[in-house]
Specification:
With 183 residues, this protein is of the alpha+beta class. It is 47% helix and 24% strand. It is built from five helices and five strands. A five-stranded antiparallel sheet has the order 2-1-5-4-3, with helices on both faces. The radius of gyration is 20 Å and the shape is elongated. The mean pLDDT is 87.
């Protein structure tokens, strides 16, 4: 093997390692960004509005529901790169959806009170310990996503009253990582 072949081989290996490293950095940056966004949104949700929700279809006419939904829609438009923003609570031992930024006719939309049939373990852990998390990619009944979860805590008791979730389609996530690797 001549030295030019060895040099080309070394350059290719180093280039491959650099692109892998760049992809890892992009993945970490994106995870930190959506976690931060979920926490920021959770910090703005008024607990008084949550207390007035029943997490049933009746909420669609509830002013508190409409206020939270309006907030989530505004955040979704501002952030732009997300698949969706939604809220969840534990009700009768099941995770159910509340206000979200999806249009009612969107295939990813869940009417208030819809039971989340395939929640991931980290979401259940966040309900148990109140720790914000980023997970994925994972697949549920809605598709394959990277998700961030952030709790809304009661000002009085410190208990979790709601969890805000943010989803990004895994395909969009992967595309972003590949784009940065290509650079």
């Amino acid at each position: 093997m001549c030295s030019s072949d060895l040099t080309i081989g070394v350059v290719l290996v180093i280039g491959w390692m650099a692109t892998q490293y760049k992809g890892s950095l992009t993945d970490l940056k994106l995870r930190n960004e959506i976690l931060f966004q979920a926490q920021e949104i959770a910090s703005t949700i008024n607990e008084d509005h949550i207390e007035k929700l029943s997490f049933t279809l009746d909420d669609r006419t509830n002013p508190g529901f409409m206020r939270i939904r309006s907030q989530l829609i505004s955040y979704g438009k501002y952030l732009g790169n997300l698949t969706g923003i939604y809220s969840m609570v534990l009700k009768d031992g099941k995770i159910v959806f509340g206000p979200e930024d999806y249009d009612e006719d969107d295939p990813l939309a869940s009417p208030p009170g819809t039971i989340y049939k395939m929640p991931d373990d980290p979401l259940q852990q966040s309900f148990a310990d109140g720790i914000p998390r980023v997970v994925g990619p994972f697949t549920d009944e809605y598709g394959t996503f990277i998700s961030a979860y952030a709790p809304v805590l009661s000002r009085v008791s410190g208990e979790i009253v709601l969890i805000i979730g943010i989803d990004i389609l895994a395909d969009n996530w992967t595309r972003e990582i590949h784009r940065d690797r290509g650079l």
